[in-house]
Design brief:
170 residues, two-stranded antiparallel sheet, 6 strands, 25% strand, elongated
Length: 170
């Protein structure tokens, strides 16, 4: 069997297989992370192996393992306010370091920092007013492992635009 194929054929097969093994984790990371991070996996495909290792090492008791769980938690956090969470995206962040992000809040550019307990964070985007037609903004960051809200946009809103708290039910 091996004698009927040329050495060039086997060299090409080995090269394609090596490229696939090298790039496959980067393609997986590209698929499952937020669009803002995808370019990192294209330009630095070896980061895909870090992503793959982090997915294997996810704590078994993580609270928000799926985007559906994260969206339900975001809706619970913002229930009764004018913040409307609409999309969830997974972020892959540096190990044991704060993650800083810049975003727009009520027309101002704000830099916020969160410190997750694990390498994954759920980025929640939505609208600050349910009836608004404005583009989506970052409204929360949820910790993958604990489910805690690491960031809440309501803390950065100017006091004049703070949503009114809903009256508590009797």
């Amino acid at each position: 069997m091996f004698t009927s194929r040329s050495k060039l054929f086997w060299a090409i097969v080995a090269l394609v297989l090596a490229a696939f093994v090298f790039l496959f984790p980067a393609l997986i990371a590209y698929r499952y992370t937020a669009p803002s991070q995808r370019n990192d996996f294209v330009t630095h495909p070896w980061r895909g192996w870090s992503f793959a290792w982090a997915t294997i090492m996810v704590p078994g008791d993580s609270k928000l393992k799926t985007s559906g769980q994260a969206l339900r938690e975001a809706k619970r956090v913002f229930r009764g306010s004018s913040v409307d969470p609409q999309e969830i995206q997974l972020l892959f962040v540096p190990k044991q370091r704060p993650y800083a992000f810049t975003h727009d809040v009520a027309g101002q550019s704000v830099t916020s920092t969160v410190t997750p307990s694990y390498r994954f964070i759920w980025q929640v985007t939505g609208k600050l007013d349910v009836a608004s037609t404005s583009p989506l903004v970052i409204v929360a960051m949820l910790d993958y492992a604990s489910g805690a809200a690491l960031y809440d946009v309501r803390n950065d809103l100017p006091s004049a635009t703070q949503p009114e708290p809903s009256p508590s039910a009797p």
